[in-house]
Fold this protein.
Amino acid sequence: MIEEIYDKFLRVTPKFCMGCGNEKVVDSLILAIDNLYGSMEGFVFLSGIGCAAWIPSPHFKADTIHTTHGRPITFATGIKLANPNLKVVVISGDGDLAGIGGNHLIHAARRNLEITVICVNNLVYGMTGGQFSPTTPRGAITKTTLKGNLEYPFDLARLVANAGASYAARWTTVHKTELQSSIEKALKKGQKGFAFIEVISPCPTQFTRRNLKAFQTIKNQLNFGEFIDVERDGFAEKFRKSI
Ligand code: SF4
């Protein structure tokens, strides 16, 4: 069954390190799209730089844009304003979306831009060697916090919900059923406003091996589920009417 879906939606199967949760995000996303629409027709997928940015590009049989570091939401904004009929989906990591592109994330949420954003939060800058990111838990050991991270992390799903998004949720890659149905909801809500899903997916290569109990700690410390689900007027629609 999943092989047929792979064949339908993927040019090639994305390859990540053994145990990486990115593959689970691929599965949940393509199953959600198949369930809702049956094809990727009318979708544009954008990503920035980092491991999660390789989820859509160049693997999906769709229009994909691999943008510069931290900027997928800016490209997504231009695309949505130019053609509001497109289903615009950003998939990237925590370093890309919450660190380098953090301002774009909160302002797109504030504007309630009609896009869907999936942030795969692996808790570090994985692809560049494991430096701490804005979501690295306090006390965690990383390449650049050898004695433990001193900073408090962003609570991303709540940050985006409070910034003005229409929909914000947080799951882990272990929440298979919840994640797929939340992605389906976010794809639909992303047609009318800013829809955001944070997927906690600790990087086994750069994070978990240095922080063996981290996943359990995170599961105990973070809340999961939906943080906001409201109807608000979207930015692109208002913008086009105004011109
Ligand atoms: S470095 Fe980490 S996040 Fe990147 S592909 Fe490997 S396991 Fe996944």
